[in-house]
Batch of 4 targets.
Target 1
Amino acid sequence: MPGVYARRLSLCTAAAALAVTALVNAPAAQAAPPAPISAAAARAYLATVTPQAEGSLSGYSRTLFPHWITQSGTCNTREVVLKRDGSNVVTDSSCAAVSGSWYSAYDGATWTAASDLDIDHVVPLAESWRSGSSSWTTAKRQQFANDLTRPQLIAVTDNVNQAKGDSDPAHWMPSLSSYRCTYARMWVDVKQYWGLSMDSAEKTALVNTLNGC
C-alpha cells in the first residue's frame, strides 16, 4: 500500500508541475480598448440627446486631425494601440510591431501581421467634423484623433475599417453581432465625452442596439 500512495503522490506532483508549466507558457492575454460606459449609462445619455441634422463636410481634411503623434520614446499612437490590442507583440527598436497576434473584434478574424490591421477611429474623423469638430482648434482635433483614454481607437482588419469609412451606426455596424452592443457603447461614450452631436437616424440605431443589450 505505501507504494500505491507513493505513486499517487508522484502523479499528483507531476500533474501540478505540468499545470504550472502550462500557466507559464500560456499566451499573454489580449488587451483591449478602455472599457466603455455601460449599456444603461449609454441609454440614459441617449435619452437626453436632441438629434441635430449633420453638418457639412465643407473644409474637411484629415490633415486637420494630426495623427499618429508620438506617445513615448519612438512609439506613436498606432504602435501603442497595436501593442495594447495584440497578444505576444514583439516590437523592434523603432517600436514597429514585428510579430504578434491580433483579434479583430469587428469581424472575428485573427491576424499575425501588423500590416493587415488598421487603427479604427470608432467615431470617424469625418463624422466628427459633421457633428461638431469643425469648430475645434487643431490642437483639440489632434487630441481626439489620438485619444487613448476613451474607447476611440481599436485595431481591426484593414479592409473592414475601410468598408466602414466615415459611416455612423445607422449605416454600419460590426459584422460580428456579438460585438455590436460594445460598439454602440463605445460610440456613445466617445460622442458624449467630446460633446459631438447625433442625427436622428444615428440615435435611433444606437437606441435599438442598446435596448437589445
Target 2
Amino acid sequence: MVREDKLAFRFDCGAAWLNLLATRGRAFSPNPVERLATPARLADWLERCELSPARRPDQHDLDRARELRETLRALALATVAERPPPADAVADLADFLAEYDDPVKLAVAGRLRREPPATTAHALARIARQAVDQMTGSDRLALKICPEDDCRGVFIDPPGRRRWCPSPACASRGRVRALRARRSAAASETTEDSKSAPEQ
C-alpha cells in the first residue's frame, strides 16, 4: 500500500475548485481527514493557490470555506452523475455568488496578473465561479469521480483513461483489491476444474 501524508494539501485534481474539494480527504469514510483545520491552514492553502486576500482568514472565513466546499461537492457529484443537482446546494451557491461581486481588475508585474481578492470570501467567490463555469459548460465532460467508496474525489480526466483520482493511495487500494479478486476467481476455477475432472 502507498503511504501518504494524510494532511498534505492536494493540488493535482486539475483546477483550484477541485483542489478545494480535496481539502477534505476520504470525505465519505467514517473518519474523514480535515485538511483545513484552522484559519492558518486556510491562509496557507489560499497562498499556494495565489489567492491570498489582503486580510488573513479568521474562523468565520474558515467556516464559510468548508460550507462552500461541501456545496460544490454536492453539485460536482450530481454533475458527473448527470442527475439533477440538490436544490438547496444550487440556492446556497447562487446566494453566495450574489453576495460577493468581484470585478476583474488586471495588473502587470512581470506577467499578466489579477489584483488580489479583498477578502477570503472574495477569494472563495473566484473559486466558486471557476466551478460554475466548468460544471455548466462542455468542460464538465472531462470530470470524473474516483470509484473508491470512501473517497469519491472529483478530478479532471480529459483523455478519460484514469480510473482513480490522483491520490496514490486510491489507485494502490483499487489495484490490490482487483488483484485479489482475480486470484480468487482463478482459485475458484481451479477448484471447479479439479472437481469436474474424470477419475483415472
Target 3
Amino acid sequence: MTPAVRVHCRSDHRTGRIITAVITAGVDTAAGFVAAHPPIARTFTRLGGRLNAADNARRAMAARLRFPDLPVERIDDPQV
C-alpha cells in the first residue's frame, strides 16, 4: 500500500476559462485506489491559455498542495 494524492482536473465546456480540480487523498493498493476522505472540489480561473487543466491546477494550487514525500498525480479528466 502506497499513500497518494489524486487531482482530477477539467475546464468548463463553454469558454474553458474555469478550471475545476477534484482532490482525493488515499492509498494505492493492488485492488485499486482507496480514498481516505470524500473528494474536495476547488474551482479557479485559468492562469495560462496554453496550459491544460492539470497544469493550470498545479500552478494555482502549488503553495497549498505540496507534499515532499507523497506522489501527487494530476490528471486532465473532462469527465470530472
Target 4
Amino acid sequence: MTIVFSVACLGFSLPTIAKDESPNIVLIIADDLSWNDIGAYGHPNVHTPNLDKMAKEGMRFDSAYLTASSCSPSRASILTGRYPHNTDAEQLHWDLPLAQTTFSEKLKEAGYWTGASGKWHMGEAIKERFDMVREIYYGNGSLSGASEWSALMDYRDKDKPFFLWLASWDAHRPWRPGLNLPHQHTQADVTLPPYYPPTELYYNDFANYYDEISRFDADVGKVIAKLEQQGVADNTLVIVIADNGRPYARDKTTLFDSGIKTPFIVHWPKGIKKKGSTTDSIVSSIDLSATFLDLAGAKTPDTIEGKSFKQLFSNPKKSFRKYAFSERNFHDFEDHGRTVRSQRYRYIRNNYNDLPATPSGDTMYHETWAELVRLHNAGMLNKHQSRPFIAPRAKHELYDLKNDPYELKNLAADPKYKKILNEHSAALEDWIKESADYIPSFRTLDDFDRVTGERTPARKRPRPTKMEMYKASGAY
C-alpha cells in the first residue's frame, strides 16, 4: 500500500518479518547544518541537549562525509546509495528518475513498512518507493517540516519492522526569528569562522541560525520520546545526519569540511556495544543504503556503490574507508569540482576554476551577502573572506586538516607536500574511473546573477532533466 499526501492507493501485499528479527530504522536529516554546530561535536554554546544525549548514550561518527554539499543531489545519493553523477539527479532540483533503484523499495520487498515525512526535494516519480509520503512544504503550517513526523509514526503498520525518512527544513533559509523556537541564542554564543567578517550583522545572523538548530534538536528529541512511548526504542536504529553544511557563502555547496562533513549521531540501545562510543573511521553517505539493507537481512542490489558499516557499531576502531569522495555540480550557479578526503588531508580539484566559487542562491536572500559584497568592493575583506568573488581560483587545493581545520592554507604548490598531493590526486583519478565520472561537454546557464542574486531570464522551473539538457545541447 502506498500513500502519498495521506491518500491511499491499492498495491501488492508484502511478506511480513517478525518484529524482533530486524531493527527498525529511522533516518533524520537536517537541512543546511554543519557538523561542528552541535554540542556533541564540541560547540560550547549551541543548545542541542537531545543530540548531545543521543551521542552520550549512543555513538558518534567523527569522520562522516556527504557525496555533495547540495540539497537534492545529496538526498538522491543517500536514497540510491550512488554518487550524484550516477543518479541522473546531480544538479539542484533535478528529480530522481524512476529508473533508479532505492533502498526504501528494497526494504519494502524485505517486509518493512516505509514512510517519509518533511522536506522531500527528490521529485514525484519515486514517492511510490515508500508506503506513505507526507511532504511538508516550507511555511505550509510547519516552519521546521516536522509537523507530521509523529502522525507518521502513529500510522505505521505495527506488525512490521519499519523504516522512516524524517527530513527537517531546519536550518534552511529564510529564517523566522522568535517563532516556535525552543531557545534564543545571542551574539555571545556565536563562534564565527575566520572566513567571515566579524560584523554585528553576521553575529546576529549566526545566532538566528543557532536558534533553528535548537528547534531541529527539539524535534529529534520528540522522535526518541515517541519511540520510547511506543515501546520500540531499544531495537530502533536512529541516525541523525545533515544534507549539507550551513547556509553561508563558504560552507554550503563547497567541497570543504564545512560543506560536506556531516554530523552523524546514532541511537540504538540494542545495537550499540558501548554507550558514548566514537569512531574515527571514514564513512560516506552512500554507505547508509548498504548498511540499512544489511541490517534488514535484505540483498544489496548491484546499483549501490556504498558498502555496509554495520561492523562499526560493535567495533568502532575498525578501519572502514581510506578515502571519502564528494562532488560539486550545478547549484543555482555552474560549477564542477571533485574532492577526496583522507583521515588528515583534503584534496580538491576545481575543473571550472575560471569561475568564482559563487555560493548558493539562498545565501543571497539575506543582507549578510549584500554586506559581504559591500566589504569586498571596499577592500575590507581578507583573501579568505573574499573567496566567493575570486576568479580565476586555484585548480588544485590541498589542506592539512590536523593543523588547518578551517582549510585556509592551500598546500598544493608546496614542494614539501608533493608526495601527499600526488597520492590524493591518484586516488581521485582511480575513483573517477571506477565511478565513470566525467566533465560535461557543455555548461549550464546560471539561474541568478553572481553578484546581485537577481534571477536571470534563463532561469527555468522545473529545471530540464539531464536527458533533456543533453539532447538540447546535441551532446546526448
